């Protein structure tokens, strides 16, 4: 058969099949019922609000420890700052030649590294710069694994939801949660507030603390189209040098050999606060405005004419908003002296790291062998029952908080809070009454590193 | 530290593997008596070798490999006669640089009566040699990405400067160069971490034998151990002693070493029962959950699980929790280990009070039922 004949035959067959299929396709439409919010009542053991750095780990821990667990996340994926925020190099898990934070957070980070074929830094050597021990991860891989592990642990993950009302009565929490087309009444015995902003603590009337001037947030992006080594920096105003340098990891003398590229350009967003839809919108809009202005300005500079954005995170990452007024407040002195409390459940290592006015960073490095720790009491709001927090809203003064807020510390807190909540649930008591030794034992079973044990 | 010039003694290979270098004599007397100056980062290092025993292999005119009497590589060295400056007014640099068999910096040695000098040809003092030695031992200095002109703050029309000519050292490098010898520091560092280092690593990597790997792994240098583990040849003969060494490294407390040692074993090597058993022994001994997880995932890459590992794994099932249980059951599922004995043990988990454990057991049993149909 000639080519022409074959083509015309195929065309004929194609037309014939369209003719056969079209009527059935046209008959498939149905009339949709009007939009209606589906209301449900759900009972669970532990409710975790916020699927970010701390909440993801808390949910996995609670599920693995045998608790019926619900995780509410207002966004679309797990991981928070590590994924959605773009700070995809969590740390710090090792210092002074030892591992200080392990457990589920480290498990996720290590599996991300393995799955992506990356290479870990050599933690046995103390780096000249602390961030060299942060571990670059592929944020997509991290989000995928986090979700897989939550589901594997039996966690009921609910995206696009947020609580609007919480009430503690008759020894149970009653939580109204709304999302796209859903309204749920969740009853549970324990809540862990992992919103980062102590949102649920505030809803229930616990005292929150906030600085008059909080640290700026960051909108993370990456750009290309210029060669930092070819630029004549003498012709470029100094205020732009940082932006041009920060975009390139190699300019940070990063030698861990990871495959994952973590371009870490960012613009500051003063006063960034993601507590409510309104403040979060403002923070995102401000970040995008700042970035747009920056790019326009950069393109005016010699050698930067072809600069273009290659990636921009969908949300501004937030450093500081509210802290709870806890049973114990971790002080700056506690932090820099590496105080270990009887109820310390997790370590924390990072310099005191306060971003000021979006212009400078106050840093105070911990002395050799010093590692701070987080007592359970700092995760419990004063006068609360059946309630814990984990993450940057940990009860602490501002300087201590500027070190405690980093991702590995938040992961450690999340696991500790969840282990406590599960034991409290099983025994029908409030977290402060759970024997510390029992919490430590459960944490050890799940791979966590307990302060004082190393 | 300064090193002594002495013969390589007939020490064990293990010691020789980790000590290529020497020491200097008393530094002050060195200058007074015009003796050789040499510094090493390894207190056991000796630069001496016996030409009579035909223990030198040369690569070109200046790079040599020193071997022990049994032919095992001991260290490399390269002789340089080069200018630091560009106007030919300064003293030429005459020096030998020493590297371990892995390309790690070991030290330097100057010819007799030779010395290093700074601005205005002033000789180095002992503290400056020590400092230079420590700088050369630091692979993380930023000199690889720097150009000569970035080392000094100077007018744009200045000619390329030299250590013999005064100039203001850039603040960026002022703490990582010997004062008054910025170009010497820069040049030597770039020699140490330049193409020769890569050549050495490549050459040693091409001649790795079980014996040489054991030598490096038994010696006392972490960097060398990591180097050889990262280059572990897939087709190397895994002797019993080599397996023992790797197992010990996996079990030890240092995470990086354990992690690297676990990764040294490649999937293609897991056909061997001996290697599988070694890994599973390490699993039982390790106290690090993440290393245990790595081992189990590694065994998942094996084409089959040997009988000993299957039998041993059954003993763990009832004791595990959390991710360790998930890992173990996934390993058994992956290798289709659904025999009656294993199923009976997993069935016991169904009565566990932890619903997570029950669910994991149920998932395993569901798959086992499908497989056994």
Tell me, briefly, the overall form of chain B. Answer: elongated
Average of the residue pLDDT scores of chain B: 83
Kindly name the structural category of chain A: alpha/beta
Parts with pLDDT < 50 across at least 5 consecutive residues of chain B: 4-33, 156-162
Report the major sheet of chain B.
6 strands, antiparallel
Task: Tell me the domain tally of chain A.
Answer: 2
> Care to count the β-strands of chain B?
8
Low-confidence stretches of chain A: 249-261
Largest sheet of chain A: 5 strands, parallel
Widest β-sheet, arrangement of strands of chain B:
1-6-5-4-3-2
What oligomeric state is this?
A: heterodimer
Examine the secondary-structure arrangement and name the CATH architecture of the largest domain in chain A.
Answer: 3-Layer(bba) Sandwich
Numbering strands along the chain, what is their spatial order in the largest sheet of chain A? 6-3-2-10-20
User: What percentage of the residues of chain A does DSSP assign to strands (E)?
Assistant: 15-25%
Q: Average pLDDT across residues of chain A? A: 90
Structure description:
- The complex is a heterodimer of chains A (454) and B (373).
- Chain A has 454 residues and is an alpha/beta fold.
- Chain A has helices spanning 3-26, 53-64, 103-115, 139-152, 199-203, 238-246, 277-298, 332-337, 398-404, 407-427, 436-445; strands at residues 38-43, 46-49, 69-73, 94-95, 98-99, 156-159, 161-169, 172-179, 182-188, 190-193, 208-209, 217-224, 265-269, 308-312, 323-324, 344-348, 352-356, 360-364, 372-375, 387-389.
- Chain A is built from 11 helices and 20 strands.
- In chain A, helix 2 runs parallel beside helix 10 and helix 3 packs across helix 4.
- Chain A is globular, with a radius of gyration of 25 Å.
- Among the domains of chain B are: 13-198, no CATH class; 317-373, no CATH class.
- Helix content of chain B is 43%, strand content 10%.
- Chain B contains 15 helices and 8 strands.
- Chain B has helices at residues 13-18, 27-32, 126-136, 182-192, 195-206, 210-218, 222-230, 240-251, 255-264, 273-285, 289-300, 307-317, 322-334, 340-348, 355-372; strands spanning 38-40, 56-59, 63-67, 73-82, 93-100, 105-109, 152-153, 168-169.
- A 6-stranded antiparallel beta sheet of chain B has the order 1-6-5-4-3-2.
- Chain B is elongated, with a radius of gyration of 28 Å.
- Chain B starts with 12 loop residues before the first helix and ends with a helix.
- Classes of the chains: A alpha/beta (454), B alpha+beta (373).
- Chains A and B meet through helix 3 of A and helix 9, helix 11, helix 13 and helix 15 of B.
